[in-house]
Amino acid sequence: MCNVAGDEGRVPLLHGTTPSVHNCVKIDLTQTDAIIKTAISVHDKYPKEYGKAALAVGMLMVAAVCNDLVLSLIHEKVPQQPPLPDVVFQYTPYTPWALVLSEYLMLGSFAVMSVLTLMHRHRWIILRRIAFIGALLYFGRCITMFVTQVPVADPNYYCAPRLTGDDLNLRNIILRALRTVTGIGLKINGKHVLCGDYIYSGHTVVLVTSCLFIREYSPRRWKPLHFLSLMVSAAGVILLLISRGHYSIDVIISYWISTRVFWTYHTLAAYPNLKASKFHQVTSG
After folding, report:
1. Is 192 domain-assigned?
2. What CA–CA distance (Å, rounded) separates 150 from 181?
């Protein structure tokens, strides 16, 4: 018995219930014996597409390197003046050690997301989505960092000396960026000594997107994990702010962009007819 009503144009997300039009039992009562035919689950029809996953991961790696190249370049341009006024800074105590704790929470959230991805039936599709969304966010961050530099938020944060004279050349800028890449941009690795990567917050990108992927691709009954993931992400952002690791505006912009990119991508993935409708509107307008 098949129920064909409902979201006919919707392709279900990977964790959700499949439309009954794709997974149903058909009973032919015209025969002497009832013949029961079960349609193949739509889950089995998703191609793994290793090439697309590899391409997305490659995009993410390029975006990460571009971030550090831009950071190495703008390190020379960061205004050497006191931090900008910030309402969170005004009403919270300065807690420098909180940045390290924020990074550990960020790594923990990312690790949980990675384990869930590896355990998922459609791990290659989820990996592709993580990498593609991450690449979009970090390419966008390259642009915002390059166009606007603000003073260092933490007046006690160590910034490496600027290049001067003959040392200020493309080779040294690239080498300095590659050293930062090996530390994946974290203070806990002791290699993030370049300043200027504020708008928008890369820490918040990882915290928010990890939480979104954990909640989207884990079973709905795992509510304790969903709640814990949300609390870890919120705590990571709060610790980031009270450590003066980022301005409040960095976090707000990062949250807004991360959630919109995630939701837009998954809306288009779930309702492919929206893409066709939009194309028709553009071409027929």
Report:
1. yes
2. 22
| 8 Å CB contact between 34 and 28 | yes
Beta-bridge partners for 35: 28
Sign of CA dihedral 210, 216, 279, 254: negative
Question: 190-202 pLDDT, tens per residue?
Answer: 777 889 999 999 9
**Is there a single domain that holds both residue 139 and residue 200?**
yes
Q: What is the 3-state secondary structure (H, E, C) of 65-131?
A: HHHHHHHHHHCCCCCCCCCCCCHHHHHCCCCCCHHHHHHHHHHHHHHHHHHHHHHCCCHHHHHHHHH
What pTM value is reported for the model?
0.81
Please check whether residue 44 is in contact with residue 120, taking contact to mean a CB–CB distance below 8 angstroms.
no
Q: Name the more confident of 275 and 72.
A: 72
Q: Is the peptide bond before 200 cis (omega within 30 degrees of 0)?
A: yes
Catalytic annotation, pick one of 15, 33, 203, 266: 203
Same domain, 87 and 207: yes
Does 18 share its domain with 140?
A: no
Find the domain containing 25 and state its range.
Answer: 1-45
Residue 185 tokens read as 């941009």
**Shared-domain flag, residues 20 and 55:** no
Tally of domains within the chain:
2
22 is catalytic: no
SS3 34: coil
Residue 250 catalytic? yes
